[in-house]
């Protein structure tokens, strides 16, 4: 067994005692770890497996023991936690016989007072990295008021044939992350009587050129900027990507040093898609999303639905795209959030405003929309509108902080809980 306790970490206040703790390798009776379950009759089997580890012999193993109700595992308390101090937790695990790892393999930080009572809400460790036999879960979190210790909880739940091995577990004091601010400008513009694809796109280019000021990180345009106002059919204006419209958007992105997202119609051979493109600051096509949910009018107009929910890494964070009718259904926003999107961009024609608010709240993401018969706004994860453009030819501009916590006093960080509690294993058909 190896226990590490290293001294102070730079950048921490001298009055605070920093923690740098790591454990890898476990003996037959692992020091300070105890088995836990809410009831003896549903306790999983907990044991040290000397034959499975990431390096040094021994890991903390939990088996469902053929009991579908089994829930519990290993716990260890770490003391000298400082209220308000940030900590980084990480642990590696290996799983076998488990059908839904996101739900059944669980790590939490349960903050405790000096008297051992819970304070604040538990942090669900949801970030996962690595492939192969071993994966690593991690989280950065601030200790709540009155915290003097934390219970590290490593569990297996409701997996009768499953076994999970935990190893290489660490907790370290870190400096508080600074703000991660992003300025978003969503465009409210509905061109009319433009007669061509190029003329419609030019109206958007002119408005952005005139009204979007630096520094703006992200510019959002509506759905179908190549068809609005010109009376053309999808087949008349659909184009390849890259193509003439992305070339115009690329030049605009470079001129503004901004990311740009916009809805256009894409042609790939004989197939037409309602597509949203994402252009980076240098004018490159960074990605595209093909609208998954098509209303009957678009199907009857000859469009084909997409079949994926990609998430894109930008220089300020992770974004996802939805288009209009996608807002009516829960799974597009949910899929993007589960894949790590921190903000969802919605080029939209018209839709249900209540559902737009719900998508932000239930997935704990920022949403920016640019619409014609739907409001153009920037919304926070609590469903509060930060900026709205009510008039044609105006912008909804807001600076958001992607590092700000929107945790609920009673529920904790629902962004983490969503990933660990969502029942994707239950059939809905």
Verbal overview:
The protein has 429 residues and is an alpha+beta fold. It has 8 helices and 25 strands. The protein has 2 domains: 175 residues, Galactose-binding domain-like (Jelly Rolls, Sandwich); 221 residues, Nitrilase/N-carbamoyl-D-aminoacid amidohydrolase. The strands form 4 sheets. Strands 1, 2, 4, 5, 7, 10, 11 and 13 form an 8-stranded antiparallel beta sheet that branches. α2 packs parallel to α4 and α6 packs parallel to α7. The protein is elongated and about 80 Å long. The protein starts with a strand and ends in an 8-residue tail after the last helix.
Chain-wise SSE layout:
Layout: E1 2-5, E2 20-24, E3 34-36, E4 45-49, E5 59-63, E6 71-79, E7 86-96, H1 101-104, E8 105-112, E9 123-124, E10 127-129, E11 135-142, E12 149-157, E13 163-174, E14 181-188, H2 197-211, E15 218-220, H3 234-237, H4 244-256, E16 259-268, E17 271-279, E18 285-290, H5 296-300, E19 311-313, E20 318-321, H6 330-338, E21 343-350, H7 353-363, E22 366-373, E23 376-379, E24 385-389, E25 394-401, H8 414-421
Parallel strand pairs: 14-15, 15-16, 20-21, 21-22
Antiparallel strand pairs: 1-2, 2-13, 3-6, 4-5, 5-13, 6-12, 7-11, 7-13, 8-9, 8-12, 10-11, 14-25, 16-17, 17-18, 19-20, 22-23, 23-24
Helix pairs in contact: 2-4, 6-7
């Amino acid at each position: 067994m190896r226990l590490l306790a290293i001294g102070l970490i730079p950048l921490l206040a001298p009055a605070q005692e920093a923690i740098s703790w790591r454990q890898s390798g476990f003996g037959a009776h692992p020091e300070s770890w105890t088995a836990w379950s809410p009831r003896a009759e549903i306790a999983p089997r907990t044991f040290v497996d000397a034959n499975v580890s990431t390096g040094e012999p021994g890991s903390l193993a939990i088996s469902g023991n053929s009991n579908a109700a089994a829930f519990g595992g290993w716990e260890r308390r770490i003391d000298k936690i400082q209220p308000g101090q940030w900590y980084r937790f990480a642990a590696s695990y290996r799983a076998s016989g488990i059908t839904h790892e996101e739900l059944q393999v669980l790590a939490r930080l349960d903050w405790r007072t000096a008297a051992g009572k819970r304070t604040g809400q538990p942090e669900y460790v949801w970030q996962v990295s690595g492939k192969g036999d071993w994966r690593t879960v991690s989280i950065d979190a601030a200790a709540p008021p009155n915290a003097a210790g934390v219970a590290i909880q490593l569990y297996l739940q409701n997996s009768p044939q499953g076994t999970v091995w935990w190893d290489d577990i660490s907790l370290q004091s870190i400096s508080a992350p600074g703000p991660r601010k992003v300025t978003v400008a969503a465009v409210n513009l509905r061109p009319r009587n433009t007669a061509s694809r190029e003329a419609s796109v030019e109206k958007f280019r002119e408005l952005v050129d005139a009204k979007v000021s630096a520094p703006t990180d992200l510019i959002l345009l509506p759905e179908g900027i190549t068809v609005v106002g010109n009376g053309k059919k999808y087949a008349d204006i659909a184009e390849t990507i890259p193509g003439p419209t992305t070339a115009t958007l690329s030049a605009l992105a470079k001129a503004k040093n901004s990311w740009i997202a916009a809805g256009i119609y894409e042609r790939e051979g004989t197939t037409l898609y309602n597509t949203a493109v994402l252009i980076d600051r240098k004018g490159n096509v960074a990605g595209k999303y093909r609208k998954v949910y098509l209303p009957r009018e678009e199907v009857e107009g000859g469009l084909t639905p997409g079949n994926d929910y990609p998430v894109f890494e930008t220089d300020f964070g992770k974004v996802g795209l939805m288009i209009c009718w996608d807002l009516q259904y829960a799974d597009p926003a949910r899929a993007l959030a589960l894949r790590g999107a921190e903000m969802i961009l919605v080029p939209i024609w018209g839709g249900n405003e209540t559902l737009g608010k719900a998508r932000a709240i239930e997935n704990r993401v920022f949403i920016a929309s640019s619409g014609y018969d739907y409001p153009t706004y920037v919304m926070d994860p609590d469903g509060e509108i930060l900026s709205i453009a009510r008039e044609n030819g105006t912008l909804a501009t807001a600076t958001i902080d992607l590092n700000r916590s929107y945790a609920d006093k009673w529920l904790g960080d629902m962004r983490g809980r969503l990933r660990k509690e969502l029942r994707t294993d239950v059939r809905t058909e």
